[in-house]
Each structure stands twice: as C-alpha cells, then as structure tokens.
C-alpha cells in the first residue's frame, strides 16, 4: 500500500471521502489513511472476521451490506465455512489457518501469485479477472456500487443474527483498543466492499498529526463545571478549541466539538471511584481530562443466565457495558452521587485491568 502512486491515492481518497467515518478527518490525515487502507471485495457469506479473533483493526462499509451475528452457544469452529476464499482475496497461512490481512503481513506479489494459481485451478481465468483488492489496483475500486439481493439468507449455523450495517457504517472499533477480542461474527450480505485500517497504522498517523500544543486541564475545567444551559457561545467555542488538544478529539470536526462542549458534564472522582460497572446500560462515553483509569473485566459466571440478560438487552435495542472503569487519580472531591468502592469487589472473578491515559476516550 505504501507503493501507491499519486494518481491512485487521489482516486481512492475521492472515493472514501464520501463516507461518514472519513468526513471527520482533514486532508493531511485522509492522505495518510489512504496510504495504509486495505480494500476488500466480499461475496455473499464471506466472513470478514469471527468472534474470538484478536481485534487489531477496524472497518468501514464502502458499499453493500454486512451482517453481525452473536454465537448462540459453544461452536465447533472446524465446521464453519472457511474464511474468505482464495478465489476472492489473497490470504496467508499463520498458525495453520487462513486470515485476512494481505498487504499488512505478507508480500503483495506473493499474494497475487497464489491468487492466480487458485483461479487457474478453477479454470476460470481471463485477462479481465478481478485482482484481489489488497489496497488499490489501477482500474479497480473507482466504482464501488453493488446491487443488494434481499432474497439471500442471513442464517449462519450456531449464530444469531442481530444487526445489519450499510454503506458508511463502521464496525470492529474494538480494534482501536489494545488486548481486545472480537465479540461477533461479521459476514457479507451479498456483494460488498470493505475498507480495513489497522490499529498500529491508525495510531501512528494520529501521533504524526497531533498538535504540538500542551494541554492544561485547568483551562477547560471552569467551563465543564458550568451548568450546560448557562454556557455562552464564547465558552463553548473556547472549550471546543481546547478539545482539539486531546487525542480522542484531535481529528473530530468543529461541529462535533461544539456539540460536546455544549452538552458535556464533568465527573470529578477520587481514586477508587467507579464511573460505571459491567452490566450498566451504555448511555454515555467518557474522556479522561487528567489522571488515569484502569479497566477491569469480570469473568463470566452463570453463563445461561448471563446470555439471557444480554439477549434481552439486544432486543430492547440497548448495549450493556462489558467492563469496569475505575478512576485512579483525580484530585478534585467526588460528586455526592458517586460512592467509593474497593478493588476487592472487582477482583472477585475479575480479570486484569488495562491502564488508560488522560485524553483517551472510554
């Protein structure tokens, strides 16, 4: 992907800039993302990733649809249809299994050779045969429109369908956080084009474009302490400018920052305070202004009862939190409605915590 010409970068950037996820980035970031993005062309039933895999990237649906499925019980993965067929995408062997990621972990030329051999074995090779979309090929990817066939089946043995994503939607965002595993199976519903960006590349790009201006929490706290309906336009604008210096908001557009500046509230927590607990309904997100936090996951107990609760939450259209967030160092006094909790309560069946630095979203 680093070998793309200026013309290839221009056409790919023009293609993906129409999608919601990419509109938040400026031209400099867009150009860098184009340099590391991988395009996938999937057919109906192809698996983008499955639950249990390491989450090392995230995805954007450029065209077509993808379905998300949750496992209904213990699955024999050897009986599931293999991952993306070599006749569609280049694959590489790692640990005895096939995995997507051509152009990131393997030499692209070798991937093309294997693709050619697979097509030759099928006896369906012509000069116009499509190349695997590892990055952008000349004449490929300029027109990503596909026709959706509503009659195709969504059933996957051992899984329960729960959501469909369409053009412009992003998924697999757990790939942006370290040490995470996929929690769902993602399949293509009909033909689709998917853009994949690896976490390592995404974080490197953000580091390269981060503002070199120091952020001081005391600059933003006075506005956050104001009731939302009393903040003036100048307060909101000033806070929006300051938010750009936090990593989580560094590439968000001005409109998003202004909305957050108007509606965000401040949680001032001492060490040992839980901001939320596993099982709470996801109705907000958090960004650390200063200090640090640790995230803990409780090990699964009473599997059947837990499954029923998760299914009920899904049917109600809600997502429930899958971890604890614990503020470990903020000096201001706690609000009255927050209660201190001790770590042993988490340690009971809990699993190790991962630190989160100031400026990161959770």
Automatic annotation (TrEMBL):
<feature type="region of interest" description="Disordered">
    <location>
        <begin position="86"/>
        <end position="132"/>
    </location>
</feature>
<feature type="domain" description="Cyclic nucleotide-binding">
    <location>
        <begin position="145"/>
        <end position="206"/>
    </location>
</feature>
<dbReference type="InterPro" id="IPR018490">
    <property type="entry name" value="cNMP-bd_dom_sf"/>
</dbReference>
<feature type="region of interest" description="Disordered">
    <location>
        <begin position="299"/>
        <end position="362"/>
    </location>
</feature>
<dbReference type="InterPro" id="IPR000595">
    <property type="entry name" value="cNMP-bd_dom"/>
</dbReference>
<feature type="compositionally biased region" description="Basic and acidic residues">
    <location>
        <begin position="302"/>
        <end position="319"/>
    </location>
</feature>
<protein>
    <recommendedName>
        <fullName>Cyclic nucleotide-binding domain-containing protein</fullName>
    </recommendedName>
</protein>
<feature type="domain" description="Cyclic nucleotide-binding">
    <location>
        <begin position="21"/>
        <end position="68"/>
    </location>
</feature>
<dbReference type="InterPro" id="IPR014710">
    <property type="entry name" value="RmlC-like_jellyroll"/>
</dbReference>
<feature type="compositionally biased region" description="Gly residues">
    <location>
        <begin position="349"/>
        <end position="362"/>
    </location>
</feature>
<feature type="domain" description="Cyclic nucleotide-binding">
    <location>
        <begin position="248"/>
        <end position="306"/>
    </location>
</feature>
<feature type="compositionally biased region" description="Basic and acidic residues">
    <location>
        <begin position="91"/>
        <end position="120"/>
    </location>
</feature>
């Amino acid at each position: 992907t680093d070998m793309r010409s200026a013309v290839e970068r221009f056409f790919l950037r023009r293609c993906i800039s129409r999608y919601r996820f990419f509109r938040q980035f400026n031209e400099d970031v867009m150009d860098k993302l184009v340099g590391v993005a991988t395009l996938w062309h999937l057919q109906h039933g192809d698996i983008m990733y499955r639950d249990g895999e390491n989450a090392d990237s995230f995805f954007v649906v450029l065209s077509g649809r993808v379905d998300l499925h949750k496992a209904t019980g213990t699955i024999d993965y050897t009986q599931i249809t293999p991952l993306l067929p070599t006749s569609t995408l280049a694959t590489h062997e790692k640990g005895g299994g096939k995995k997507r990621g051509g152009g990131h972990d393997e030499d692209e030329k070798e991937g093309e050779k294997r693709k050619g051999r697979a097509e030759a074995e099928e006896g369906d090779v012509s000069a116009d045969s499509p190349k695997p979309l590892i990055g952008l090929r000349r004449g490929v990817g300029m027109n990503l429109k596909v026709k959706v066939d509503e009659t195709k089946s969504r059933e996957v043995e051992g899984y329960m369908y729960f959501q469909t994503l369409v053009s412009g939607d992003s998924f697999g965002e757990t790939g942006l956080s370290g040490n995470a595993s996929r929690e769902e199976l993602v399949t293509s519903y009909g033909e689709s084009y998917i853009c994949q960006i690896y976490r390592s590349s995404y974080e490197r790009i953000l580091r390269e474009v981060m503002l070199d201006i120091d952020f001081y929490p005391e600059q933003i706290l006075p506005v956050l302490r104001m009731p939302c309906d009393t903040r003036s336009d100048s307060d909101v604008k000033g806070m929006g400018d300051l938010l750009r210096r936090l990593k989580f908001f560094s590439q968000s557009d001005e409109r998003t920052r202004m909305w957050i500046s108007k509606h965000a509230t401040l949680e001032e927590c001492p060490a040992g305070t839980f901001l939320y607990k596993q099982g709470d309904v996801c109705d907000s997100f958090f960004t650390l202004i200063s200090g640090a936090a640790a995230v803990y996951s409780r090990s699964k107990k009473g599997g059947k009862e837990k499954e029923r609760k998760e299914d009920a939450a899904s049917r109600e259209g809600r997502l429930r939190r899958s971890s604890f967030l614990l503020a470990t160092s903020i000096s201001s006094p706690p609000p009255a409605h927050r209660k201190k909790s001790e770590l042993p309560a988490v340690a009971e069946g809990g699993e190790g915590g991962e630190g989160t630095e100031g400026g990161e979203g959770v």
